Amino acid sequence: MPQATLYRMVLPDHECPFGRRAKDMLDDAGFEVEEHILGSREEVEAFKEEHGVSTTPLVWVDGKRIGGSDDLGKFLVAHA
């Protein structure tokens, strides 16, 4: 089973719809997902700075950085 690592934002009052979409796409494609929830605005901002991104989610597949949910969609189509 392919492995994926997903970092996504789930705040007390807001769940990022793109992170939810990425999780659903990975589940539908049969990935074993190691999920990391960014649960505060501070965690989200620190994560974005550390990884040089302006948005979440961020996905890795088998250790290779794929990108956000749009990038994941393209990756899954290309590897179907």
From TrEMBL:
InterPro entries given in the database record: Glutaredoxin, Glutaredoxin_subgr, Thioredoxin-like_sf
Source taxon at top rank: Bacteria
PROSITE patterns documented for this protein: GLUTAREDOXIN_2
Glutaredoxin domain span: 7-66
Gene3D superfamilies: Glutaredoxin (3.40.30.10)
SUPFAM superfamilies: Thioredoxin-like
Protein name: Glutaredoxin domain-containing protein
Organism ancestry: Bacteria, Pseudomonadati, Pseudomonadota, Alphaproteobacteria, Sphingomonadales
